[in-house]
Amino acid sequence: MATQKKTAEVDYSMQEKILALYELQRIDSKIDEINKVKGDLPLEVQDLEDELAGMQTRIDKINGEIEELNTLTKQRKRETDQAKILIGNYKEQQNNVRNNREFDAITKEIEYQELEIELADKRLKEYAAGIKSKKLLLDEAEALGRERMADLEAKKNELQSIEEETRPQVAEFDAQAGKVKAKIDERLLTAYERIRRNVRNGLAVVTVKRDACGGCFNRIPPQRQVDIRQGKKIIICEYCGRILVADPEAEQ
Which of 57, 98, 155, 231 could form a disulfide with 15 if both were Cys (CB 3.0 to 4.6 A apart)? Predict the structure, then answer.
C-alpha cells in the first residue's frame, strides 16, 4: 500500500507540472500578444541607435581628418614664413659677397627656398580644398544625424507610450507566471524556454486536437494520445519537438 501511495504522489506531481506548463504557455502567449502591439518598433529603435552610433563614428573621423588638415596647413604656413625670412637674409648676404662663386651659391639657396614656397602654396591649396570637401561631408552627415535622431525620438516615444499602456497587464501576467513556475522544476523550465526560442510562434506547449499535434498538425498515434492523457510523463512531438498535453478544457 505504501508503494502504491508513493507512486500516486509521483504521478500526481507530474500531472501538476504538465498542467503548470500548459498554464505557463497560456500566460506567455497572452504576453506575446501584448508584445505584438509593439510590432517592429523595438527593432526599429535598435536599428536607428546602431545607425546613429555608426554616423557618430563617421562624424568623429571626418572631424579628425579636418583637424589633421588644419594642423598641416599651420605647419606649411610656418615653413613658408621661415623660407621668406631665409630669402630676405640671403638677399642681404648677396650685397656683401666677395666673388661670383659666393653669389651663385646664395642665388641657388634663394631659388631653393622659392621652390619650397611654391610647393607649400600648392599643398596649402590642396589642404584648403580637402577641408572644404570634408566640411561638406560633415554638414551632410550631421544633417542626416539630426534627421535620424528625430526619427529615433519619435519611435522611442511611441514605444514608451505602448509600454506604459500595457505595463499593468504585463505585470499581472508576470506575477501569474511566477506562481506557475514555482510548480515546475528547473530542468523542465529550461527545456520549455529553449523550445519557445526555437519555434516561430513561441508555442512550446500544445494540445492534441483532432488526433493531431496543435503545433505542427501531424497525426499523433492513438497509444501516444493515451500516454498524453494519462499525464505520467512529458511527451514530445516527434515532428516539431513541442511538449504535448491533453486539452484540460476538453478533458473536463
Answer: 231
Quickly count: other Cβ atoms within 10 Å of residue 91's Cβ. Answer: 12
152 Cβ contact partners less than 8 Å away, ≥ 6 residues apart: 45, 48, 49, 52
Degrees to nearest 5, angle at CA 230 with 249 and 186:
90
Among residues 151, 227, 232, 208, the alpha carbon closest in space to that of 242 is found at 208
**DSSP SS3 for 235:** strand
CA-to-CA distance for 179 and 77, rounded, in angstroms?
Answer: 76
pLDDT (tens digit, 9 = 90+) per residue, 217-227?
999 999 999 99
* Cell numbers placing 209: 486536437
Distance (Å, whole) CA 95 – CA 78: 27
The sign of the dihedral angle between the CA atoms of 228, 232, 234, 239 is negative
Backbone angles phi and psi of 108, in degrees to 5: -65, -40
- Cα–Cα dist 230/250, whole Å: 14
Separation of alpha carbons 156 and 164, rounded Å: 12
Counting Cα atoms < 13 Å in the Cβ hemisphere of 18 gives 25
* Nearest residue to 194 via CA among 182, 179, 181, 204: 204
pLDDT tens profile 131-186: 999 999 999 999 999 999 999 999 999 999 999 999 999 999 999 999 999 999 89
